[in-house]
Amino acid sequence: MKLNDLQPNEGSRKSRKRVGRGISAGQGKTAGKGTKGQSSRSGAGGNLYRQGGNLPFFRRLPFIRGEGFTPPNRVVYSEVTVDKLERFEAGSVVDRQALAELKLINNVKKPVVILGAGELKEALKVRVDRVTAGARRVIEAAGGTVEEPNQTAE
Q1: Helix/strand/coil (H, E, C) string of 96-115?
Q2: In CATH, what number is assigned to the domain containing residue 107?
Q3: DSSP secondary structure letters along 38-106
Q4: Disulfide: which of 31, 125, 129, 141 matches 20 by Cβ 3.0-4.6 Å?
């Protein structure tokens, strides 16, 4: 036996159906697509934009503009700069409630981040969700302390 003698088993390979090649081929005229209608036309199906009244696939995807898209579960912080903390008296506790009373934040439910822009003279006890490294330096240089619920080094 030689390589050129090798053949597939009888009946294991089926020749493809050549549609639309005349009446004697068995699939002539309508080529197995029936008569008339959308599915008998060329290019039928495969158009992702038209889905028979449903919202098209592309419109169901999130809008992607520029660089990436906005994640749905992002954390939006209420931002307060260090220089705004000058309104507090020395030794007072700065938390969400205290910031809301002085109208420094609008929503008490949103987490608060202290940003390091500005100077601070009084020693304050800061208890917020997040403090940037620069803000921590300014607060501790003034003699204050920083407490975060999840102490993560930045």
Answers
A1: HHHHHHCCCCCCCCCCEEEE
A2: 3.100.10.10
A3: GGGSTT-S--SS--TTSPPHHHHSPP--SSS---TT---PEEEEGGGGGGSPTT-EE-HHHHHHTTS-S
A4: 31
CA–CA distance, 78 with 114 (Å, rounded to integer): 9
In this predicted model, what pLDDT tens digit does every residue of 112-149 receive, in sequence order? 999 988 899 989 999 999 999 999 999 999 999 998 87
In a domain, 43, yes or no: no
Could you tell me if residue 141 is inside a domain?
Answer: yes
Terminal-to-terminal C-alpha distance of the chain: 74
pTM for the model: 0.53
Rounded distance between C-alpha atoms, residue 21 and residue 123, angstroms: 91
Number of structural domains found in the chain:
1
Q: How many residues does the chain have?
A: 154
What is the residue whose two structure tokens read 């906005």?
A: 70
Of 34, 53, 54, residue with least CA distance to 44:
34
Q: Is residue 134 part of a domain?
A: yes
